[in-house]
Write a structure and sequence with these properties.
three-stranded antiparallel sheet, alpha/beta, 14 helices, 2 domains, 16% strand
Length: 340
């Protein structure tokens, strides 16, 4: 079994062991202090919603005044660069788009001044599986149908590394599809609308968003891009169930899953003192392991599938350090269209 697949299987064991080892969250240091929850995106989005909902729980757990500060710009890149250099006072946290940030770092994108491997991990909030969607009236219902398509398949996306665009690039390369990826849409919701209107043929998106688009009849689900089925689409076959992939093709799927496995990862700055990081980590564990909190978030369609800090570190290491320089060049060519 491949390293990526083995990691996923071992995650449950690691998570269970880590849960038993978490320290208590009590720490007088935070009482009365202001703890900043940095959001690298504008107000109203998913990361903003998660941060504001978690902020109230961290306030109760730590006795701190937790404020949410939106620092939008460059898809979260500017905020993450500043966060990398935050002071060593333990008074900042942020939720990183682990999939996008991992790829930005792997591909040495211009402007990247952060290093995910140096962050103090507090845990993964959620790491959804991703789904291949097509327009609702598409003649394609399986991956094999897409492979047999005589026309060019147009995929909608946001930026080059947005989840939607780079995910579509991975899909097209893996299955050798004839594709045209159109970036520039303002989020997956805009692409879903384009699917419903027949302007685009395909969309690669997280299972939570996919579920919403399928329920509203703006799209049709074709496959789960993973070795395991989606909990939201239990009857939808995976890419491995639909296709006989060779080792090279399987690597592209497994590596994509490894990057997606970083998910929405909660971190403190690299300079955070060890004891402060331990306190924040324990608080995160207590909050996100609480069934009542999980239920509260689910009611608002914000899902928590918590994995502890140790698992977050393992996923980041796999996403960033398991690829060779040659593989990085190949990924860069597939996603960005160049051979730097």
């Amino acid at each position: 079994m491949r390293k990526f697949a083995m990691l996923a299987a071992a995650g449950g064991i690691a998570a269970a062991a880590a849960m038993a080892a978490q320290p208590a969250a009590a720490d007088d240091y935070y009482k009365g202090k202001t703890l900043k929850f940095v959001v690298g995106f504008g107000a109203g989005g998913g990361y903003d919603a998660y941060s504001r909902m978690l902020a109230t729980h961290f306030e109760k757990e730590l006795g701190a005044n937790v404020i949410v500060e939106n620092q939008p710009g460059a898809g979260g890149l500017r905020a993450l660069n500043r966060f990398q250099r935050a002071p060593a006072d333990g008074l900042q946290m942020t939720i990183v788009n682990g999939t996008g940030a991992s790829l930005q770092q792997v591909l040495a994108m211009s402007g990247v001044r952060f290093d995910l491997t140096e962050m103090k991990y507090l845990g993964i909030i959620d790491a959804p599986r991703w789904i291949v969607l097509v327009k609702p009236n598409s003649p394609h219902s399986t991956l094999e149908d897409l492979k047999k398509s005589t026309g060019r398949i147009s995929w909608g996306g946001s930026g080059k590394i947005s989840g939607t665009s780079d995910g579509a690039a991975f899909t097209c390369h893996t299955l050798k599809l004839n594709c045209n990826i159109v970036s520039g849409y303002k989020g997956s919701a805009a692409v879903a609308l384009a699917l419903a209107q027949g302007e685009m043929d395909g969309l690669y998106v997280s299972e939570t968003s996919a579920f919403k688009y399928v329920q509203s009849k703006n799209a049709k689900a074709v496959a789960t891009w993973n070795r395991k089925r989606s909990t939201l689409f239990p009857d939808l076959p995976t890419v491995f169930e639909q296709q006989k992939l060779d080792d090279k093709q399987a690597w592209w799927v497994d590596y994509r899953n490894a990057v997606e496995g970083v998910g929405r990862v909660l971190v403190a700055p690299p300079a955070t003192p060890k004891e402060r990081a331990a306190t924040l980590r324990a608080a995160a564990h207590k909050i996100m392991s609480d069934p009542k909190v999980v239920e509260e978030f689910a009611k608002k369609k914000r899902f928590i599938n918590y994995a502890p800090a140790e698992e977050a570190e393992k996923m980041v290491q796999t996403a960033l350090k398991s690829v060779t320089e040659e593989q990085k060049k190949e990924i860069r060519k597939v996603v960005l269209g160049d051979e730097k």
